[in-house]
Amino acid sequence: MDHCSKSLREVNSPFDCLLFDLDDTLYSSTIGIAAAVKRNIEDFLVEKCGFPKDKASSLRIELFRTYGSTLAGLRALGYDIGADDYHSFVHGSLPYEVIKADLQLRNLLRSINQRKLIFTNSDRNHAIKVLEKLGLHDCFDQIICFETINPNLSISSRLDEFPVVLKPSIDAMKIALNVANIDPRRTLFLDDNDRNIAAGKSVGLRTALVGKVMKSKEADYALESILNLRQVIPEIWIMNGTDGGNHQIKRTRSEIMDSVLPATPVGA
Ligand SMILES: [Mg+2]
């Protein structure tokens, strides 16, 4: 190996693929969608399941902590709730108009040459609506969503036949890796939930906690906003490619000299 090829190899990106969570990762948790989802879930618990209004909030939190979602918890507890009915109630009346097109994020994503996938617990309708509102509908190669990780739920004859599988369960992580056919060691997983990040780490993914200044124990990186991606993880853009790649190599090499020399990852 000559010196030149060795240098190129050393500056190749460590990532072949980026796996993005959607809600509260590609847009801020503060714009009102997350709060509206919580309200709708609590309304569902009261109106469809008959729980007292003053218990709805604590029950929602408890089901989320124990089962990964309210739907998973309700089904595990024996409530015959269909996923489509649940999702249309919880997502059907969301104020999607508060999600604005994000040209800066679009340009950032379009500058990444690696495969880019969405991995969300949300249903496909919601995922597509959010991506369209953000103006990012054509920025991803694949959407791994509720229906992808629960393919048999709609044909189950008993509630316990196919338990709902969602992040942060290891089963959900493994299904996503399998469906996407990705090498976890060369995939960067970005999510705003530290339990999801921990699950990702346990299946071998490289991990970035989004929306936080401080890393969690299992996060390799922390990004206050997804828009900080280039500053915090510049190694994504190191490509020994063709065409536009030459420009990127020149740019990222100088960045490397600035950012990698301290030996610890930026954002540590
Ligand atoms: Mg999220």
Instruction: Give the C-alpha Rg.
Output: 20 Å
Shape verdict: globular
Q: How many DSSP E strands? A: 6
Low-confidence stretches: 1-10, 241-268
CATH topology of the largest domain: Rossmann fold
Let me know the largest β-sheet: 6 strands, parallel
Protein model, in words:
By secondary structure, the protein is α/β, with parallel strands linked by helices. The chain has 2 domains: 17-29 and 100-235, HAD superfamily/HAD-like (Rossmann fold); 33-94, DNA polymerase, domain 1. 43% of the residues lie in helices and 9% in strands. It is built from 12 helices and 6 strands. It has helices at residues 3-10, 33-47, 56-67, 70-76, 83-92, 103-110, 124-134, 146-149, 170-180, 194-202, 229-232, 245-259; strands spanning 17-20, 115-119, 142-144, 187-191, 206-210, 221-223. It has a 6-stranded parallel β-sheet. The protein is globular. Mean pLDDT is 87; it is low at 1-10 and 241-268.
